[in-house]
Every structure is written in structure tokens, then in C-alpha cells.
Amino acid sequence: MLIVGLTGSIGMGKSTAAERFVHHGIAVCDADAIVHDLYRGAAVPHIEAAFPGTTEQGLVDRKKLSEALLADPEGFAKLEAIVHPMVRDVERGFLQAQAACGAAVAVLEIPLLYETGADELVDVVVVVSTDAQTQADRVLERPGMTREKLAQLLSRQLPDTEKRARADYVVETGGTISQSQAKLDSIIESLRGRTGEAYQRHWS
After folding, report:
1. What does the domain layout of the chain look like in residue ranges?
2. Which of 90, 131, 152, 169 is the 20 to 30 Å CA partner of 97?
């Protein structure tokens, strides 16, 4: 089974790219979605212990957690130490299920793929990218997003230029959706028939 790592900085179009893989019958495991589930379940008591007052009625209050992290940027390391191992466990279960059903390709959608060293756990990396202004315009449309929050998020991510340089494939998302889809279609076609080593090395 070939494992594809799909990544890109915030606002670059990862979700749209993921949808295209699904369109072609390739399963995608979304790390952000896993985190959302953990914030409603297994991670809650650990986050409350590390960041008192950031949970309520068994749920992480993302606004309060964000405020706590803004006040103490070093808190990101504590949060990641809690969440990342849990995310990896879910990703492992996903990949094992895909392997068991004979999937030829599976995708891990991981926003901080390079930052967390997850590029070593996949066979191929696809980076989605656009210009900085388009990125900012997209992100600032999100509810509750501010330029301060965006700057903090970007400070934790590798520069887009470095991600592009390290990627196996780059998908430009600043044009039309159909243009991005055409590029992804071409990439997906090129992946068919390829075999990978990452699953046996790291996940089985």
C-alpha cells in the first residue's frame, strides 16, 4: 500500500484536495477531524490538567484554549505532547484497516506533516499551495480568526517555500477549482501501480 501525505499551510486548500482523492475512491484520514473528536473525548481530561479552565462539560472550549496558547506560546509543546500520540494511534488504525481491505493507496491529511516529522512516515508528499495574499484572504474569512491568530499559526508552520521545495508534488490552488482538480487527477494517475514501504516500516 502506498501512503500519501497531504499537507499545506493553513488556508491553502487541503480539504478541497482531500475531496478529490475521495472522488477517486481513495480513503483520506484527516488529522484535524481526529483532533476535533479528541477535543470531545479522550484528550479532554489531559488538556484540562495542562490548561486549567479550558474545558467545560466534558468538552474542550477551543476559544479558551486558543486564548491560553496566545498568552503562553510554549504551551503548544504541551498540547502537542498530549494530542499527537493520540492522533498517531487513530491514523495507525485507519491505515491498518485500509491495508486489510486491500487498498492500493491511502492518504493521511496532516497540516503539520513536516513540522511533526510525519513526512518520514509516508511514501509520497503532496503539498497544496497558493500566494500569501490569497491565503490570508481565505483564512481571515473564518469565524473568530484575526491577523494575530493567523500570524501565530504561521509562526508554527514551515514557510510555504520550504514545503514546496521538499514536496514530491505541488498543487497550485490559487486558480480555479477545476484547475486544481486537474492537477490532482494527474498526480493520482501517476501514483497508481506504485508500491510503498512506509506502511511496513512504521504502521503495520
Report:
1. 1-26+106-194, 32-102
2. 169
The single residue listed with the C-alpha cell 484527516 is: 30
Fold of 1-26+106-194: Rossmann fold (3.40.50)
Euclidean distance between CA atoms 8 and 158, whole angstroms:
9
Per-residue pLDDT of 71-122, as tens digits, reads 887 899 999 999 999 999 999 999 999 999 999 999 999 999 999 999 999 9
Q: Where do we find the cell 497508481? A: 192
Cell numbers linked to 49: 490538567
* Alpha-carbon span 3 to 94, nearest angstrom: 11
Q: Residue 83: which of 31, 122, 120 has the closest Cα?
A: 31
| 128 C-beta neighbours (distance < 10 Å), count | 28
